[in-house]
Amino acid sequence: MVPLSHLNLCTSAKNIAQTLRLKRNDRCINIMPLFHIHGIVCSLISTLFSGSSIFTSSGFNALKFFSWMNKFSPTWFSAVPTMHQAILSRANKNFKIIEKTKLRFIRSSSSSLPSKTMKEIEKTFQCPVIESYGMTEASHQMTSNYLPPGKRKASKVGFPAGPEVQIMGENYSILKKGNIGEIVIKGESVTKGYINNIEANNSSFVNGWFRTGDQGFYDREGFLQLTGRIKEIINRGGEKISPLEIDNAIMEHEGIFQGISFPIYHSKLGEEVAAAIILKQDHKLTALELKNFLKNKLSSFKIPQKIIFLDEIPKGKTGKLQRIGLAKKLGLEK
Question: Edge-to-edge strands of the sheet including 105-108?
Fold first, then answer.
């Protein structure tokens, strides 16, 4: 269990309100579950901190979203990528509401937003998309892209926006820009430790830093690039493969609605790359066609060798696609 203090929560809410430049006349529409840190801190507490207003839905429903939008006229909302994709799939039937509402920005967090999805959202809603990076142990927000005229990059999660954020090497040293390592954090929004879990506390805190379990690096401009959860990295015969890189390449295909890569067992390599795909309505695509499409985007050893087309990909309670254990859920585990 992750205990979060009043100071943790208020510090993070303040950081989010400042990052998003929330004002009293802003109106948030919350579609995230309020048992999740994303909904609690980003949507609810940051709104209260800024003195603005919020409409809290009974739970995400793509069929009802635009009617809520029409009634409440929000200036912003925050969601996970699968929710954004579901909203986009119904946007062409609700252009009048979109034009009437005129959102100031849209925020995405809790899992990686494909660059193609980000571009489609901005084109559809005519407003900037701000991708952020957070976790429960940090009371949500850790880094964020900036609102215009500040910088933002597709597939990057921005700059430190609250706690101190660094990259740690295997010997617990802090690495320079460009070097891949584990993302570590510290600051007033970070939990002091887990309840009744000495083992987890001993392994999660090093020299005052909290180890996030995420891997990434800072690019030349100081943007943080996530390469994946350390336990999700695919080890194909000693080659360490970032599933996020594969996900982004898959999502560039115009016929794909959702896609996620994951490891499956291989007798000689240990792990092989697989992918689960949901096609857009009225689109057709074969596994071979997708592999050929990916040849110009990925190194050959990163191209999924097993591709499965589904009507639905398993999701968690917050709507995030579930990479860990996916092979077992799909009956592909040896």
Answer: 53-56, 27-30, 76-79, 105-108, 129-135, 140-144, 159-160
Q: Of 120, 155, 190, which residue is a domain's last? A: 155
Sign for the pseudo-dihedral over CA of 105, 108, 113, 117: negative
pLDDT in tens, 73-94: 999 999 999 999 999 999 999 9
Listed residue (320, 118, 141, 324) closest to 229, CA to CA? 324
- Residue 178's region, left for phi above 0, alpha for psi from -120 to 50, else beta, is left
Question: Cβ distance 132 to 107 under 8 Å?
Answer: yes
- Cα-based angle 161, 231, 167 (whole degrees, multiple of 5): 35
Distance of CA 2 to the CA centre of its chain: 20
Whether the model pTM is above 0.85: yes
Is residue 1, in this structure, part of any structural domain at all?
no
